[in-house]
């Protein structure tokens, strides 16, 4: 993720970002590190997750690194009332490996909930497991995750109101990760 964000054209000083389904903070920290490596000053960075244990791990990482400008909260993407009202108007929302665990029939609803928190010209970056011969037994069955095809994801994002959906590539040295999943960039 750090390599992806380092080459991303979406970064700029003052960027307001949200990590949806942050887990232990991997995407938030990768985004923050990429901004800093480019000499940019992050704006407000916020993150939420459903699981208190994951938020505790993320909070510990923030303390260990002496990072004080990242706000975290417990919330469910399918319950938009769970986040503070001021958590909106984001330049960039990122989500990594969360949407696999939503009920299939609520996928678009989750995408829509995030789209409504973006600025009119905001971007959504999604890292998600693809359905294939390798991920079906390992992630689909073992972790009981929902897996999607490219077409299913594109349709769900369009149904949620995103106007432009682009499937991006992993950076060259990490291209093997394309076997695992997709990077999707969607515009509000």
TrEMBL record:
<dbReference type="InterPro" id="IPR029063">
    <property type="entry name" value="SAM-dependent_MTases_sf"/>
</dbReference>
<keyword id="KW-0489">Methyltransferase</keyword>
<keyword id="KW-0808">Transferase</keyword>
<dbReference type="Pfam" id="PF13649">
    <property type="entry name" value="Methyltransf_25"/>
</dbReference>
<dbReference type="GO" id="GO:0008168">
    <property type="term" value="F:methyltransferase activity"/>
</dbReference>
<dbReference type="InterPro" id="IPR041698">
    <property type="entry name" value="Methyltransf_25"/>
</dbReference>
<feature type="domain" description="Methyltransferase">
    <location>
        <begin position="18"/>
        <end position="122"/>
    </location>
</feature>
<protein>
    <submittedName>
        <fullName>Class I SAM-dependent methyltransferase</fullName>
    </submittedName>
</protein>
<dbReference type="GO" id="GO:0032259">
    <property type="term" value="P:methylation"/>
</dbReference>
<keyword id="KW-0949">S-adenosyl-L-methionine</keyword>
């Amino acid at each position: 993720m750090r390599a992806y964000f380092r080459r991303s054209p979406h970064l700029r000083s003052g960027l307001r970002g949200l990590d949806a389904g942050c887990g232990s903070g991997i995407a938030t920290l990768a985004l923050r590190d990429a901004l800093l490596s480019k000499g940019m000053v992050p704006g407000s960075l916020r993150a939420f997750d459903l699981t208190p244990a994951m938020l505790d791990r993320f909070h510990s990482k923030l303390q260990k690194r002496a990072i004080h400008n990242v706000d975290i909260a417990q919330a469910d993407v399918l319950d938009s009332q769970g986040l503070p009202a001021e958590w909106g108007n984001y330049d960039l929302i990122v989500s990594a490996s969360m949407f696999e665990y939503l009920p299939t029939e609520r996928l678009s609803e989750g995408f829509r909930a995030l789209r409504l928190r973006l600025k009119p010209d905001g971007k959504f970056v999604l890292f998600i497991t693809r359905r294939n011969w390798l991920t079906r037994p390992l992630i689909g069955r073992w972790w009981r995750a929902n897996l999607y095809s490219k077409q299913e994801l594109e349709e769900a994002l369009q149904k949620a109101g995103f106007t432009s959906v682009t499937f991006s590539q992993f950076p060259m040295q990490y291209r093997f990760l394309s076997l695992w999943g997709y990077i999707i960039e969607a515009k509000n």
